[in-house]
Amino acid sequence: MATDAKQRPVYVISVAAELVDMHPQTLRLYERKGLIRPGRSSGKTRLYSERDIDHLREIRRLTQELGVNLAGVEEVMRLQHELDDIQDEFEAEIERLEGEIRSRAQAGALPSSEGPVSDPKDRPVYVISIAAELVDMHPQTLRLYERKGLIRPGRSSGKTRLYSERDIDHLREIRRFTQELGVNLAGVEEIMRLRFALEGTRARLENRIGDIQQDIQSRMTAWRELPNASPARGTLSPDAPDPDIQDD
After folding, report:
1. DSSP labels, 42-101
2. d(CA 176, CA 171)
3. Does DNA-binding appear among the keywords (predicted)?
4. Quick check: pTM over 0.70?
5. Do residues 163 and 125 touch, judged by C-beta distance below 8 A?
6. What are the beta bridge partners of residue 46?
7. Domain 1-65 has CATH 1.10.1660.10
8. What number of other Cβ atoms are within 10 A of residue 66's Cβ?
9. Hey, how many other C-beta atoms are within 10 angstroms of the C-beta on 107?
10. Residue 137 to residues 72, 127, 148, 159, 187: CA-CA distances in angstroms?
11. What confidence category does residue 110 fall into, taking pLDDT thresholds of 50, 70 and 90?
């Protein structure tokens, strides 16, 4: 898989530093801060993957081009690692599920086909005045954050903005980044972009697993309803005569 190739640790620190135009000591600092997670050889030598190189280039972009402070970069990379991990976790789960389905299909024992349940935190319920009061912000600030893509409120049938509990959580996080951690708006935009990507990836992959389960369940149901459906080779129907007993 392409993902596996990107995760393979292949570059020693000197080569990795050259690829991203940084000093090796900078890479060591970023590792201590938890911004990157290089692998180790059997001799404990740091080895960097293509994914690590991508992360280092992203750190350079955030710090040099967007002026994001270290607190903002740490949050961006934490979310990026979480996104990477959940992608890997769900890919592994899908492979496991497909293998389980293949091994159990002959016996007709299938996993549950229940799909994911909608999260009540995503239900849009608060008008802008209530949402602003809940997060101690001015309604105009919420409108600005929406234009910047930092939050994505729903709309009523009359086009009134409606905010969910998840939106409220996002707004509180934005306030923490800007007021407590001093992250600039460019950094907050990157953080929220990754948050939306993380939530979207989780929902998409959960749906994919549900779709696989439903598809297999439907196929097995259709197979059982076929008129010529028969037991697997090498088994006997309860009413079948024993081939070793001869009629007199």
Report:
1. TT--EEB-HHHHHHHHHHHIIIIIS---HHHHHHHHHHHHHHHHHHHHHHHHHHHHHHHH
2. 9
3. yes
4. no
5. yes
6. 40
7. yes
8. 16
9. 8
10. 21, 13, 16, 22, 19
11. very low
